[in-house]
Amino acid sequence: MSEQVIIIGAGCAGYTAAIYTARANLSPLLITGSQIGGQLTTTTEVENFPGFPDGIMGPDLMFLMQQQAEKFGTRFAYEDVKSVIRDEATGLFTVKTSGQNYEARSIIVATGASARYLGIPGEEGLSHGLTACATCDGAFYRDVPVCVVGGGDSACEEAAFLTRFASRVYLIHRRDTLRASKIMAERTLANEKIFPVWNSTIAAYKTDDKGELEAVMLKNLVTGEETELAVKCVFMAIGHTPNTSFLGDLVDRDQSGYIVREPGLMTTKTPGLFAAGDVADPHYRQAISSAGMGCAAAIEAERYLLGV
Ligand code: NAP
């Protein structure tokens, strides 16, 4: 039997869509993917989610959302989606995972976005010493120097977190001003353990004879000068790429890869397929705006199923 709605992705947008569709008696099936809880599971304290005046840890917030979705009857499949296709004649979707096929009348895509890397030689071979998650890996680098690449809120947050462990945290940014919000930028620049390296990027990684990172070659983008900086780990924080590869041509994408929606709506070019959260949001990319999009997608899916 077909599902009424399948939600793909277990972040703020997916869980909120699940809460709303479950409370609308649509008995949603949420296919989680491998990063259960989404990007907030890799952050520390969230200070700007309304309702938590003292802040809340990202993983705790996601656990609460999951519990709330479950309480109203959401079912979970802990699998990765490989592809989604739509039968033009019936309008039904087939969602293929590595284990099985599911059929559904509507789909909410809430698969978020994955961390970007610089794409320079040597990245693939660096199993230790290169990561995009300070929360996951920061504690491995006690009393040694590390660096963060990027100048946005994520880079500032990662750098501040890493000061708990590392001897120094270099913040390597390609310009000479931070993109981060004013409060984050001010806190970062006031932190005695964070050392900004302006107008610079990593040109190459240098490893020791065990293959472990020992330094990066920095290139100054203004002068062209190259210098060596001793660090044991590089933490990437240069943004994310939306996760849409499993959708084929069911959606249009903008030049950065975000799913194109109809203006002001969560609908995509495929009837019955809705998109919410970071996968379809080049503008805000906040936990609260993702949750709001998840709510909107759920209401639009409900209306689609009712034919109104
Ligand atoms: P972002 O705001 O897009 O910043 C990405 C940073 O990486 C920018 O400084 C950018 O440089 C740099 N960058 C991009 N491509 C690069 C490349 N190829 N080489 C070197 N540097 C590169 O991404 P984000 O920091 O992940 O933040 C995403 C969204 O989440 C934002 O809306 C942010 O406000 C939000 N966020 C909020 C919080 C919070 O409020 N607690 C925490 C984390 C994230 P340029 O500045 O030169 O473009």
Tell me the structural class.
Answer: alpha/beta
Unreliable spans: none
**Bound ligand species:** NADP nicotinamide-adenine-dinucleotide phosphate
Supply the number of structural domains.
Answer: 2
Helix content: 10-25%
Q: Main β-sheet, in a few words? A: 7 strands, mixed
Radius of gyration, CA atoms, in whole angstroms: 21 Å
Please provide the ordered H/E string of secondary-structure elements. EHEEEHEEEEEEHEHEHEEEEEEEH
Termini gap: 23 Å
CATH superfamily of the largest domain: FAD/NAD(P)-binding domain
Q: CATH topology of the largest domain, what is it called?
A: FAD/NAD(P)-binding domain
Shape: elongated
The CATH class label of the largest domain is: Alpha Beta
The number of E-state strands comes to 19
Q: Mean pLDDT, rounded to whole units?
A: 95
- CATH arch. level architecture of the largest domain: 3-Layer(bba) Sandwich
Strand content: 25-35%
What is the number of helices?
Answer: 6
Folded structure, characterized:
The strands form 5 sheets. Strands 1, 2, 5, 6, 7, 8 and 19 form a 7-stranded mixed beta sheet that branches. Strands 10-17-11-12-13 form a 5-stranded parallel beta sheet. The chain is built from 6 helices and 19 strands. Helix 1 links the parallel strand 1 (3-8) and strand 2. The model has no long low-confidence stretch (mean pLDDT 95). Helices cover 22% and strands 28% of the residues. It has helices at residues 12-23, 58-71, 134-137, 153-162, 182-190, 287-306, and strands at residues 3-8, 29-31, 45-46, 56-57, 75-77, 81-86, 93-97, 101-109, 113-115, 130-131, 145-149, 168-172, 194-197, 200-207, 213-220, 226-230, 233-236, 240-242, 273-275. Helix 1 (12-23) packs parallel to helix 6. It folds into 2 domains: 3-115 and 240-306, FAD/NAD(P)-binding domain; 130-236, FAD/NAD(P)-binding domain. By secondary structure, the chain is α/β, with parallel strands linked by helices.
